[in-house]
Design a protein that fits this description.
The chain is an alpha+beta fold and 516 residues long. Helices cover 16% and strands 40% of the residues. The chain has a six-stranded mixed barrel with strand order 25-29-26-28-27-30. A five-stranded mixed sheet has the order 6-5-9-7-8, with no helix packed on it. It has a four-stranded mixed sheet with strand order 2-1-4-3. A hairpin with a 2-residue loop joins strand 1 and strand 2.
Length: 516
């Protein structure tokens, strides 16, 4: 048999009605209390009398239970100074809708002649404030209002309130009480800087003026007087002015100095050129000089030129070519040479003094000349001994007494430069007919009409000459019956016996043409 458990209601559910009842009672009581407070506040507000505080022309509408003017001002935190104007008086009783007019004096600090005054005033013009204090102000004196320069007839700046001039709690300042308590105009600071009499001596000129500037430098700047770095100012520019100060300016002289390729614009207290160069640390060394001279007394804007001087000695050499002396040596074979003494070139030297000014030649002067080395002739010995030798050729053995390397060319009668109808066409210098076996030579090298042997050509007679056949040059003759071969080469030319007489032999041969 199944047993069913008996269900019981929850304890939490049983307590809900009790809690809801207690909460409702408390809310009800709170609402009743608020209602009572609202009624009391409304009663207090509507029973207060309305009044208007007009402060410096600005109305403030209030409701108050205070019976007198003074009580209301104390409630609002507004405290009066003796200079303030109020209507009605502080002890007057208030009536509903009444207007209380208050003119708050403006606090002013005045500094002049080393004294300070703290005052409250209703004046708006600066001159009226000074008149109340018995202060006389010269038109040249400087008046500064809150550190701004203003004239004696100017009005004070806009009447900011003390609340505008100092930090306050914004929550308090926004309430009527905060606005009224801080409604007094902000303090103004007036400072009088007396214009001091000053005497200025600037070179030969003197003047007097009055200034409110604090230092010598500021006073000169105010007067539009330019002072250069080199000028001497006494007292110094940062000296504080006082009445009767005398300022003296010793002007430096403006100058231009040209030195070492530079243009220096300067100002100086030196009187002479020499003093100025010393002050500028410019030295004259050796033969350097200045234009004008060092004793010259300068004037403003003069130009001083420093001339750098340098003198040098130039040594020049002129060379004398040596000569060659040839001497015959009978014991030396023909065409052999020997240098017996080397030639030495002679030297003539001269000395010239040259002066340079600022790098440019100014003048030169010849001083001396001497033979530094005498020339020495070169001596060459040449052989004169003739030795006869034999040579085997395709034509048989030949005897020759000299062998000369010569530049060989070829020619015919047709190429000799004469026309075919010329009377001497084909006739050589010797009268022989031009053709094979007749060669043209320089008679100073190969004796004229002597026999020669040329390898590759054969025997020939030196029977012709030519305008271009000079020195070691031989022109080989060929017949007109066929074109002459092209020949331009060096060949050995053998001079055959018999040996000519000594006066027909050129022992020292020319060196042209040159063999490559």
């Amino acid at each position: 048999m199944a047993i069913q458990a008996e269900s019981k209601p929850s304890q939490t559910l049983n307590r809900l009605p009790v809690f809801s009842g207690l909460l409702g009672q408390r809310v009800e009581r709170g609402l009743i209390a608020l209602g009572v407070l609202g009624i009391l506040w409304a009663g207090y507000f509507f029973t207060a009398q309305p009044i208007t505080l007009e402060i410096n022309g600005q109305p403030h509408h209030l409701r108050t239970h205070r019976p007198t003017v003074e009580a209301v001002l104390n409630q609002m935190g507004l405290y009066l100074e003796p200079e303030d104007i109020i209507q009605p008086a502080l002890g007057s009783s208030l009536s509903p809708g009444q207007t209380v007019s208050i003119q708050l004096a403006r606090p002013v600090t005045v500094e002049a002649d080393g004294q300070t005054w703290q005052i409250n005033t209703h004046h708006s013009q600066i001159r009226d404030i000074f008149a109340d204090l018995g202060l006389s102000v010269d038109p040249r004196d400087e008046i500064r209002v809150n550190d701004r320069r203003m004239s004696l007839r100017a009005n004070l700046p806009a009447t900011l309130t003390e609340a505008d001039d100092r930090p306050t709690n914004p929550l308090i300042a926004a309430t009527p009480r905060g606005t009224i308590a801080n409604s007094r105009p902000a303090r103004v600071k007036l400072v009088v800087h007396r214009a001091l009499p000053v005497t200025l001596t600037d070179g030969d000129e003197a003047q007097s003026f009055r200034t409110t500037k604090l230092t010598v430098g500021e006073a000169l700047l105010e007067q539009g007087i330019t002072v250069y770095l080199a000028d001497k100012v006494s007292p110094s520019l940062n000296t504080r002015l006082k009445a009767g100060t005398t300022i003296k300016i010793e002007r430096a002289t403006p100058l231009v100095v040209l030195v070492d390729g530079q243009t220096i614009k300067t100002r100086t207290h030196g009187q002479t050129v020499g003093e100025i160069l010393t002050l500028e640390n410019i030295a004259l060394m050796g033969q350097d000089y200045s234009r004008p001279n060092p004793n010259y007394v300068v004037s403003p804007n003069d130009i001083i030129e420093v001339v750098r001087v340098q003198e040098t000695l130039e040594i020049e050499a002129e060379y004398i070519a040596f000569e060659t002396e040839w001497i015959a040596d009978a014991e030396m074979e023909l065409d052999q040479q020997e240098v017996r003494q080397q030639g030495v070139t002679g030297v003539i030297k001269s000395r010239t003094r040259v002066r340079y000014e600022n790098g440019q030649e100014a003048w030169r002067e010849f001083e001396d000349e001497w033979l530094d080395q005498a020339p020495t002739n070169r001596i060459i010995a040449y052989g004169t001994e003739v030795v006869i030798r034999s040579l085997d050729t395709p034509y048989g053995s030949i005897q020759y007494w000299r062998r000369i390397p010569m530049l060989a060319t070829a020619y015919t009668a047709a190429t000799s430069g004469k026309a075919l109808d010329h009377p001497r066409y084909g006739v050589t210098r010797s009268g022989l007919e031009a053709g094979y076996g007749v060669v043209a030579v320089d008679p100073k090298v190969v004796p004229f009409m002597s026999e020669v042997y040329v390898p590759g050509y054969g025997r020939g007679v030196a029977g012709d000459t030519g305008g271009s056949v000079l020195g070691k040059h031989i022109d080989l003759g060929f017949s007109d019956d066929k074109p002459a071969p092209f020949i331009y080469e060096w060949r050995d030319v053998y001079l055959l016996t018999p040996v000519p007489s000594a006066n027909r032999i050129r022992y020292v041969l020319p060196q042209w043409p040159q063999r490559e």
